[in-house]
Backbone:
């Protein structure tokens, strides 16, 4: 559990000011992405379960309170408040794995103002990152349908939590598994692994390395074949396979990690097939992203799976989203930010989704929560009075739901290039009218 101090300083200073002014009436904040990057036709909401875990367990420890006291500048009133601090509000959110778009609330918090304000930083920290990675992973999944896809990015992730959350978000979005052992332990994600070039280099011969690894890992091992000469290594495996078979070991596959993957993939497949190893799979890695994978497959490469590392865990083409958490209502009155280029729609909102006759998503409408929806409402109650309204869905359930969401996307949004026709998100007339009303009353 992360420290309650994992927040911005101004959350604490604002909280103290709210307490001094007696401002503790009910507030509603909404977390959303202002605009989609040009490289994204859609987003996949993720991290909701970790956000709810954070809210449900949020508390200040004695050590944290003592540290705050030593810093000076914090009143005893604030310290006493924090000693008893618990989140007691309500949360409505999109289900984990929901396809979403700009200006749509992903998560809505309703709580006494000091509580609702304080949780901003960590909620954004959790939901922004996992949504970022799940959205990237979904593009890889759409680029390589039916292929084995493995998260290889831990060593390039920006810290331990990022590595774990990236493994979780990518699996939820449709990846087959991860190479990060702790993600398997913590989240039950299937683990995949091969061998490193150093293992081959440490042995006196490539064949010695293959034999040693296969005997150490006899359950269908995958052998790395490009340390020296890719095709020569595969020929050695073809010769080695009968010996290992007599020991009860069946080689599962080979891994390519460099060079022209389309050319090597075709050559390796031919060598394996001629050697009677048609069942062996070919797995590829090495600076891959969705575009490179799509190119390799379009070239006819007979590759069965891909390991995706740096580009996934850092979302290297889009390393951040314009995700924000904004006040929409306080003390029963709608609130609106009018900053240039950053204006918000006021009031407590809902997202109403429409589908066409084939079940594909057609368009969304952002509307006031009190308005009726003739489609599917996306924000669902998931926490009331600081406690979950139902048991958390399993990661497998969220993964299945995300697959259905991706399956309902129109073809234009499934492409890696920018959709010729962007997805339509309407703003209801009632919401527009409320914005005009708020503007008229705000100095």
Residues:
């Amino acid at each position: 559990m992360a420290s309650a101090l994992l927040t911005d300083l101004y959350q604490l200073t604002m909280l103290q000011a709210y307490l001094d002014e007696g401002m503790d009436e009910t507030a509603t904040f909404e977390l959303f992405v202002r605009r989609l990057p040009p490289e994204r036709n859609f987003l996949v909401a993720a991290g909701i379960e970790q956000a709810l875990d954070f809210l449900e367990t949020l508390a200040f420890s004695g050590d944290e309170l003592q540290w705050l006291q030593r810093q000076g500048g914090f009143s005893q009133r604030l310290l006493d408040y924090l000693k008893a601090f618990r989140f007691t509000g309500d949360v409505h959110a999109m289900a984990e794995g929901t396809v979403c778009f700009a200006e749509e609330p992903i998560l809505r918090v309703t709580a006494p103002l000091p509580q609702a304000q304080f949780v901003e930083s960590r909620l954004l920290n959790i939901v922004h990152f996992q949504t970022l990675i799940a959205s990237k992973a979904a593009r890889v999944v759409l680029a390589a349908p039916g292929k084995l896809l493995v998260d290889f990015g831990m060593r390039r992730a920006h810290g331990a939590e990022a590595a774990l959350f990236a493994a979780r978000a990518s699996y939820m979005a449709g990846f087959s598994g991860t190479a990060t052992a702790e993600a398997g332990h913590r989240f039950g994600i299937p683990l995949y692994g091969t061998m490193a070039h150093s293992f081959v280099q440490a042995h006196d011969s490539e064949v010695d390395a293959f034999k040693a690894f296969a005997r150490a890992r006899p359950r269908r091992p995958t052998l790395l074949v490009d340390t020296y000469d890719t095709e020569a290594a595969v020929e050695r495996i073809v010769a080695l396979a009968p010996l290992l078979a007599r020991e009860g070991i069946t080689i599962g596959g080979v891994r390519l990690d460099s060079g022209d993957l389309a050319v090597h993939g075709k050559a390796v497949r031919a060598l394996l097939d001629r050697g009677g190893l048609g069942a062996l799979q070919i797995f590829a890695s090495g600076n891959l992203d969705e575009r490179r994978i799509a190119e390799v497959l379009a070239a006819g490469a007979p590759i069965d799976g891909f390991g995706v590392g740096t580009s996934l865990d850092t979302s290297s083409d889009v390393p951040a989203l314009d995700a924000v958490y904004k006040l929409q209502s306080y003390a029963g009155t709608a609130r609106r930010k009018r900053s240039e280029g950053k204006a918000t729609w006021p009031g407590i909102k809902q997202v109403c989704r429409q589908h066409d006759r084939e079940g594909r998503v057609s368009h969304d409408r952002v509307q006031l929560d009190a308005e009726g929806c003739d489609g599917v409402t996306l924000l669902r109650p998931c926490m009331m009075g600081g406690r979950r309204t139902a048991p958390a869905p399993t990661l497998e359930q969220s993964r299945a739901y995300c697959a259905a969401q991706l399956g309902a996307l129109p073809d234009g949004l499934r492409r890696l290039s920018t959709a010729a026709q962007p997805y339509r998100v309407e703003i209801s007339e009632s919401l527009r009218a409320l914005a005009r009303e708020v503007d008229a009353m705000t100095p």
In short: The longest helix spans residues 120-143. DSSP finds 17 helices and 19 strands in the chain. The two ends are 43 Å apart (CA to CA).
